[in-house]
Design brief:
The chain is 33% helix and 22% strand. The strands form 4 sheets. A 6-stranded parallel beta sheet has the order 2-1-3-4-5-6, with helices on both faces. It has a 5-stranded mixed barrel with strand order 14-15-16-18-17. α7 packs across α8.
């Protein structure tokens, strides 16, 4: 096997793991292929957060096997950790490697002899404490905004979520290693995105004397990075210190993403979430006061078992009352082995879908109002690729008036709202 192709499914942490695997396979003398059709080894880095994610992985395995039957398929990631036998039975799968054994993949494929099917390499994820990360030069993959994973795993036990059981305990990349990575990335990229499975828990291990806000402060003081962006942070970890730091520094993207899941106190309790709506509201309103132009987003789940019409209305009204600029709305999907999967009063799927649509419509309304408020104003953007697309610090897509090289950080004046984003002002543009 000389050529490999890695396809990632799911979250930013999975994307970072995929970048690390690409780097490690390259160090074994293999070359990256442009697509799976030209690869001898196809690595599918799976997600299992919903049943749809599982189905997407299975469909991709069958398609790869159909289009490139000579390729060996290796499935890794969260779905592989959760249900290895299920994946091993799929046509064309040579290896199933859990998150527990991800670091062994380069040696595993390098030592492979003969043709075989369905080898399983999955062990107790809670016995693993190592941290899979990409070297500085590879952390970006093909992205203009490199995604640096600095935390993995989760110690929470939300009743609907399988991720702690496929990612293991919360663990952090050491501070000095994080700073080294950021220094290296800052040499080539204008913006660096900090990510993790539960990013706000960085540095919470016993004996640690520094938390996420302290780490970010050190990044600003000890590295030349021009812009830092924090990915999702749980509301209880949006401390006043962290929000104040974000507000005070022009080098931190004004972008807050705090998972909500539900605006109903009763539903949050059944979900085993660690905050109440009043706590969440306080953090969001504090963020808006400190950063009037910030993007503020949330993950919201509809159709959680037992969610009544009245409880959904609580969520709808709660979201409507807060200054969100976008939402990621998810329809509840039962995950095997979680308490919610066997809970009574499962909400009918048509009801879940109707609630999903109502929240998406509300999110579109809020996002349009937010985008419209920037017409005639200047925004700082980073260009995303050779072309006309850029992303503002407050998470708005901007279509530039002319083509631009990737990875440039500059100010643009907004001329109009587009269907999904904003248009840079151009005196000759006809709207």
């Amino acid at each position: 096997m000389r050529k490999f192709y890695v396809q990632n499914f799911g979250c930013r942490a999975a994307q970072a793991d995929g970048a690390a695997l690409e780097s490690l396979l390259g160090k074994k003398g293999m070359d990256a292929a442009s697509n799976w059709g030209h690869a001898d080894l196809v690595v599918l880095n799976s997600c299992t957060v919903t049943s749809e994610a599982d189905a997407d992985l299975r469909s991709t395995v069958r398609r790869v096997n159909r289009e490139n039957p000579d390729a060996r398929i290796l499935v890794t990631g969260c779905y592989a950790q959760r249900a290895p036998e299920e994946i091993a039975a799929l046509p064309g799968v040579a290896w199933v490697v859990g998150n527990s054994d991800k670091t062994e993949i380069p040696d595993l494929v390098a030592d492979a002899l003969g043709n075989y099917h369905g080898q399983i390499h999955v062990h107790d994820i809670f016995a693993r404490h190592d941290f899979l990360s990409a070297p500085v030069e590879d952390a970006a993959g093909d992205r203009a905004r490199p995604n640096l994973k600095i935390q993995d795993g989760c110690n929470n036990r939300c009743s609907f979520c399988v991720i702690p059981f496929v990612r293991g305990r919360s663990r952090s990349m050491p501070a000095e290693q994080v700073l080294e990575q950021v220094r290296g990335l800052a040499e080539n990229y204008r913006e660096v995105v900090l990510s993790g499975v539960n990013l706000g828990r960085w540095g919470r291990e016993p004996g640690s004397s520094i938390r996420l806000a302290g780490l970010v402060k050190r990044m600003l003081e000890e590295t030349p990075v021009e812009r830092l962006r924090l990915s999702s942070v749980e509301p209880m970890d949006l401390t006043s210190e962290l929000l104040g730091l974000m507000a005070d520094s022009s080098r931190i993207a004004k972008h807050v993403h705090a998972p909500l899941q539900s605006g109903s106190d009763a539903v949050l309790r059944r979900m085993h979430r660690k905050y109440r709506p009043r706590h969440y509201e306080d953090r969001i309103r504090t963020a808006r006061t400190l950063m009037p132009d910030a993007a503020i987003g949330a993950d919201v789940m509809v159709g959680f078992p037992g969610e009544t019409d009245a409880e959904f209305e609580e969520t709808f009204q709660f979201i409507d009352s807060l200054p969100f600029t976008y939402l990621h709305v998810f329809t509840y999907s039962a995950r095997p082995g979680t308490p919610a999967a066997s809970a009574p009063a499962q909400v009918p799927m048509p009801v879940r879908k109707e609630r999903n649509k109502r929240l998406r419509d509300l999110a579109e309304k809020k996002n349009l109002a937010f985008r419209s408020s920037f017409v005639g104003k200047a925004l700082s953007v980073v260009t995303l690729g050779q072309g006309r697309t850029a992303l503002s610090g407050n998470f708005l897509k901007v279509e530039l008036s002319q083509e631009s090289a990737a990875n440039e950080l500059r100010d643009v004046r907004i001329g109009a709202v587009s269907a999904q984003g904003l248009l840079e002002f151009h005196p000759l543009r006809i709207l």
